Amino acid sequence: MEAPWTFIGVFTGHGPLLMAVHLLLVAVIILFIAKAAISTMKAIPTGAQNALEAFIQGTISMGNDTIGKDRARKYLPLILTIGLVVLISNLIGIIPGFESPTSNINITLPLALVVFIYYNYEGIREKGAKNYFAHFMGPVPILAPLMFPIEILSHLSRIVSLSFRLFGNIKGDDLFLAVLLMLVPFFAPLPAYALLTFFAVLQTFIFMILTYVYLAGAILVDEDH
């Protein structure tokens, strides 16, 4: 199947430059939302301020349940940035003539690598390299030669899981919408838009909560286990 037609693709073609420009567009949208939210701050939020505050509160609540109140706020900038990038990237592909940056593995893989490197760095920083890698050995010393490579593979598989889950789901959604618009381009796709919006939000939530879970597993690990 041919790549879906896009407004930007008319000028860039379908390649890395197309994804780069769409990703830049996502960044501009996020900056615009942030600017709109803080330009007229009110005690009773409305519009962009209300939406952004709700997103922030939801992110904090997610972290409170996963990693604790103090650490949820500490890691809020990371999780919030990832969440906004993934959410806007997911949603932009629902608009005909645009393509989701997250439908490209070259975008989702770096996001997964950022999470992987950061949570391991935080685990080592909080616990020290010796204690951090000690929990890779398992609860019984005799099982260490078996458990250590299994744990290493388990952690490496998180890169694949994070990147391919997001890429696969969003790519599938984009192709589904493209086929639907070719077959019934007017009113029939309207229920699909609602469904695809739900999936876009769901995939964002999954990426954010898994980032919190991986951070919790790295910094809250029991040193005796």
TrEMBL record:
Coiled-coil residue spans: none
CDD domains: ATP-synt_Fo_a_6
Matches recorded under InterPro entries: ATP_syn_F0_a_bact/chloroplast, ATP_synth_F0_asu, ATP_synth_F0_asu_AS, F0_ATP_A_sf
Keyword list, A-Z: ATP synthesis, Cell inner membrane, Cell membrane, CF(0), Hydrogen ion transport, Ion transport, Membrane, Transmembrane, Transmembrane helix, Transport
Bilayer disposition of the protein: Multi-pass membrane protein
GO cellular component: plasma membrane; proton-transporting ATP synthase complex
An example Gene Ontology molecular-function term: proton-transporting ATP synthase activity, rotational mechanism
Record localization: Cell membrane; Membrane
NCBIfam families: ATP_synt_6_or_A, PRK05815.2-3
PANTHER family membership: ATP SYNTHASE SUBUNIT A, CHLOROPLASTIC (PTHR42823:SF3)
Entry function: Key component of the proton channel; it plays a direct role in the translocation of protons across the membrane.
Family, similarity comment: Belongs to the ATPase A chain family.
Protein name as annotated: ATP synthase subunit a
Origin species: uncultured Sulfurovum sp
Gene that specifies this protein: atpB
